[in-house]
Amino acid sequence: MYEEAGTVAVRIMHDIWPRAFGTKPAEWNYECERRLLVQTESTDTAPIFRNYLREAIKEIILGELMPYEYTTRVLAIMKKHYPNGHIKNVRRARDCYSLVID
Question: pTM of the entire structure?
Answer without folding.
Answer: 0.54
